[in-house]
Amino acid sequence: MTEHPPRIRVHSTSGALLIRDSLCIQFYMHRPHVEVAPFVLRALERYRRELPAGALSNYVDEAGDWEPIDEEGWNTTIRDELLEPRGATLDLRDASGEKRYRFEYLG
Fold first, then answer.
1. pLDDT at 3
2. Which among 4, 13, 17, 39 has a CA at the least distance from the CA of 94?
3. How far lies 31's CA from each of 28, 37, 46, 49, 85, in Å?
4. What number is the average pLDDT over the span 30-36?
5. Pick from 47, 40, 52: which is nearest to 23 by CA?
6. I need a surface site. Which of 28, 29, 78, 92 has the fewest CB within 10 A?
7. Which helix (H) or strand (E) holds 57?
8. Rounded Cα–Cα distance for residues 56 and 70 (Å)
9. What angle do CA 36, 44, 89 make, to 5 degrees?
10. CA–CA gap between residue 27 and residue 105 (Å, rounded)
């Protein structure tokens, strides 16, 4: 293994970033949402602490539109959605053009 991981960047002719290296971790569990939701919330909170401030600043609302989210929204909208007993769907991303950070949950 090399000392430094590879860095992949593919840009369009206009200079916009099209492709970049990434890491994706997925868990497929045969457990009810109500059982895993508190642990998912804890993992999301930990992930946010490690990211730059404001990195996960947009979420998809019920209509499928991207909406900005502030600290109050984190404490109500996202937390309430995730802890809904019947299930949750979360898609959180950063607002930058690079789209470097994302958190997705289907439960």
1. 77
2. 17
3. 9, 10, 22, 26, 13
4. 93
5. 47
6. 28
7. none
8. 10
9. 60
10. 10
Q: Which two tokens stand for residue 46?
A: 């930990």
- What single letter denotes the amino acid at residue 62? E
Dist. CA 3–CA 23, nearest whole Å: 17
The residue type at 102: R
Residue 59 and residue 66 in contact, taking contact as beta carbons nearer than 8 Å: yes
For the segment 78-84, the average pLDDT, to the nearest whole number, is 91
Are 11 and 18 in contact, with CB atoms under 8 Å apart? yes
Amino acid at the residue 50 = E
The H or E element spanning position 106 is strand 102-106
Residue 101 and residue 51 in contact, taking contact as beta carbons nearer than 8 Å: yes
C-beta of residue 83 within 8 angstroms of C-beta of residue 38 = yes
Tell me 74's DSSP state.
Answer: I
